[in-house]
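Quick start: what a row looks like.
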Amino acid sequence: MIVDSGRSKIRSAVVVLAVAALTVAGAVTLASTTTAEAAAILVEDEGADCAVSLPGSVAANSKLPDPFKKL
């Protein structure tokens, strides 16, 4: 005979309440964002303002060791 201590019912109720609270919080956050903010969230940031040099175009630095000498 298995005795039910009620823990599983309490745990299930806590999980359901937590999911409901997170759902409400997500809905409130989504409702509070403007259309421009929502569009900005969906667009991938391509790093247009990030300066990146092409590989091999950087001058050699004599202070750094040559990684191919140890091979």
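That is the whole record. Helices lie at 7-32, 35-42. Residues 7-32 form the longest helix (26 residues).
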